[in-house]
Specification:
By secondary structure, the chain is mainly beta. It has 2 domains: about 5-65 and about 120-135, Roll (Chitinase A, domain 3); about 70-115, Thrombin, subunit H (Beta Barrel), CATH 2.40.10.330. It is built from 1 helix and 9 strands.
Length: about 140
Amino acid sequence: MGDTVRVHYTGTLDDGTTFDSSSGREPLEFTLGEGMVIPGFEAAIAGMAPGAKRKQRILACDAYGERDEERMVQMPRSELPPDAKVAIGDRVRLQDEMGHIHAARITDLGLETLTLDFNHELAGQALTFEIELVEIG
């Protein structure tokens, strides 16, 4: 714990779709134990030496968690600015009364309400990572 690591990675879904990759970029750098990456990704690096490669499937519970239907929220359309143009699938950022910003995706548009999904877009999905440990610092 506490080591700073640099890794190259490619993340895929069970259907083979790539959702993220460091390909063509600098390696991802983070400090172990600081919670900067999902728990399963950090655990996959444990015991690796520089130059080592590993393919690891991470269950949803060790990634972005399971989907939580309580994070689906209906909001009156009247709370949007009058000139707001929104569509299903749009991503929005909303500020709560404490000043925190929360990201959501619009999943339904009614005449008077819209439904927002505050789950992470990868919640409920197992993720597979091909990881190469480039450096431990």
